C-alpha cells in the first residue's frame, strides 16, 4: 500500500503519518509539499525539513494560487497554475499511490485533481472552521471529506494532533521555568508584521514574565534577559512551551488553535487578515465565544493595545483558564486514529 500525503498543513499530516506507521508499518508514505516557505527568500519549508526528520520520502512541488487581491505577483502566481497541474500529473503518475490524503490548500488541489483523473481516491481533511476556495473544490473530487468540528458537513474525526504535544518534556535552553511564561508566535513561518510590535513590547514584558518568541526564519533574533527567540521551535520543546505558557499570543492558524485548545490553554489571537475565507478570524472567534481567548484585529494592533489586552487577560486569568480546561475535555486526542479508521474503510485500501 502506497499513500501520497499532500496539503498546506504539515502538523496534522505528521500526526496521521505517525498513526499509519504504528498500525501499518509496511505502508509506504510519500509527502508532496513546498520546497520553500517563502519563495522570494528561498527559505526551506517546514514541510521539507520535517519530512526529513520523520524519515518521510519528500517530493518538492510548486504551483500557483488564486488570490483576492490583484497585483503583479498575482499574475506570476497564476502563470504557475498550469505548470503546477502538469507537475502534479507527473508526480502522481510516477508515484502511483493507492490513495491520496489531502490536508487542503492550493498545494493539494492540483494533486487531488490529478489523482481523480487517474482513478486514485482521495480522503481530505479540513482543519479550519470555514473552508477556503481550494478546499471547497477539493471536496468535490474527494471520496471522503473529514472535518475537525462536529457541526461541520462531513465525517467528524476531529483535528489530528501529534501525540508528543501531550507528553512531558524539558524546557528549551535559556528558558527560566520559574517565571510566568508568555509565548509569542506568528505561526510556523513567523510574521514580520507581528514581530515589529512584539519587539516593542519585550522590554516592558520581561520585567514580569519570561518571554519565548518564535520569530520565523526571515526575522532577526534579539537577545536580552528573560527573553529567548527561536526561528522555529520543534518538538519536544514546543510541547513544553505550550503546556507551560500562561498566555499564548499570535496567529490563529487551525493547527495552532487546535493544539492550544486541546491542551486547555489561554490565548490572545491576532488573526492573519488575508487568510483564505478569513479562516484565522473564524478560528479565533470560535475560541473567544468559548471563553478561552481574546482576539485583536491586526489593524488595531499597537504596543498599547497589546499590553492592555495582556494585562486584562492576566487579571481575569482564572475565568479564561477554567473555560479553556472545560472546552479541552470536549476535544478528541485520537483524531488521527479516527481518520485512519475512515481511510481503511475504503474498498481500495
From TrEMBL:
Catalysis performed (reactions): di-trans,octa-cis-undecaprenyl diphospho-N-acetyl-alpha-D-muramoyl-L-alanyl-D-glutamyl-meso-2,6-diaminopimeloyl-D-alanyl-D-alanine + UDP-N-acetyl-alpha-D-glucosamine = di-trans,octa-cis-undecaprenyl diphospho-[N-acetyl-alpha-D-glucosaminyl-(1->4)]-N-acetyl-alpha-D-muramoyl-L-alanyl-D-glutamyl-meso-2,6-diaminopimeloyl-D-alanyl-D-alanine + UDP + H(+)
Tree of life domain: Bacteria
InterPro entries: GlcNAc_MurG, Glyco_trans_28_C, GlycoTrans_28_N
Transmembrane segments: 69-93, 99-120
Predominant localisation class: membrane
EC class: transferase
Gene3D superfamilies linked to this entry: Glycogen Phosphorylase B
Glycosyl transferase family 28 C-terminal domain: residues covered: 182-335
Binding site for UDP-N-acetyl-alpha-D-glucosamine: 6-8, 162, 188, 280
Membrane topology: Peripheral membrane protein
GO CC annotation terms, alphabetical: plasma membrane
Listed EC numbers: 2.4.1.227
Stored CDD domains: GT28_MurG
Signal sequence bounds: none
Name of the protein: UDP-N-acetylglucosamine--N-acetylmuramyl-(pentapeptide) pyrophosphoryl-undecaprenol N-acetylglucosamine transferase
Species this protein is from: Candidatus Gottesmanbacteria bacterium RIFCSPLOWO2_01_FULL_43_11b
Encoding gene per record: murG
Amino acid at each position: 500500500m502506497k499513500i501520497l500525503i499532500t496539503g498546506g498543513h504539515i502538523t496534522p499530516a505528521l500526526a496521521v503519518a505517525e498513526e499509519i506507521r504504528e498500525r501499518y508499518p509496511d505502508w509506504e508514505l510519500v509527502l508532496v509539499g513546498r520546497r520553500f516557505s517563502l519563495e522570494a527568500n528561498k527559505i526551506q519549508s517546514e514541510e521539507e525539513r520535517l519530512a526529513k526528520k520523520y524519515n518521510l520520502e519528500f517530493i518538492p512541488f510548486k504551483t500557483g494560487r488564486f488570490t483576492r487581491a490583484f497585483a503583479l505577483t498575482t499574475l506570476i502566481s497564476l502563470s504557475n497554475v498550469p505548470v503546477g497541474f502538469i507537475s502534479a500529473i507527473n508526480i502522481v503518475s510516477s508515484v502511483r499511490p493507492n490513495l491520496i490524503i489531502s490536508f487542503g490548500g492550493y498545494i493539494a488541489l492540483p494533486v487531488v485533481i490529478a489523482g481523480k483523473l487517474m482513478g486514485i481516491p482521495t480522503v481530505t481533511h479540513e482543519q479550519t472552521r470555514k473552508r477556503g476556495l481550494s478546499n471547497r473544490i477539493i471536496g468535490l473530487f474527494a471520496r471522503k471529506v473529514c472535518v475537525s468540528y462536529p457541526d461541520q458537513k462531513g465525517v467528524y474525526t476531529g483535528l489530528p494532533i501529534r501525540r508528543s504535544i501531550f507528553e512531558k518534556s524539558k524546557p528549551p535552553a535559556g528558558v527560566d521555568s520559574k517565571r510566568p511564561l508568555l509565548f509569542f508566535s506568528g505561526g510556523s513561518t513567523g510574521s514580520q508584521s507581528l514581530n515589529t510590535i512584539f519587539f516593542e513590547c519585550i522590554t516592558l514584558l520581561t520585567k514580569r514574565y519570561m518571554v519565548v518568541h518564535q520569530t520565523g526564519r526571515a526575522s532577526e533574533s534579539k537577545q536580552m534577559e528573560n527573553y529567548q527567540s527561536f526561528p522555529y521551535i520543534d518538538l519536544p520543546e514546543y510541547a513544553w512551551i505550550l503546556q507551560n505558557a500562561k498566555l499564548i499570543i499570535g496567529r490563529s492558524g487551525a493547527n495552532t488553535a487546535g493544539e492550544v485548545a486541546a491542551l486547555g490553554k489561554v490565548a490572545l489571537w491576532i488573526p492573519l487578515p488575508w487568510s483564505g475565507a478569513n479562516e484565522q478570524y473564524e478560528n479565533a472567534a470560535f475560541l473567544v465565544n468559548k471563553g478561552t481567548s481574546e482576539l485583536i484585529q491586526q489593524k488595531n494592533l499597537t504596543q498599547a493595545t497589546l499590553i492592555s489586552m495582556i494585562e486584562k487577560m492576566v487579571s481575569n486569568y482564572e475565568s479564561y483558564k477554567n473555560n479553556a480546561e472545560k472546552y479541552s475535555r470536549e476535544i478528541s486526542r485520537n483524531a488521527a486514529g479516527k481518520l485512519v479508521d475512515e481511510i481503511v474503510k475504503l474498498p481500495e485500501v
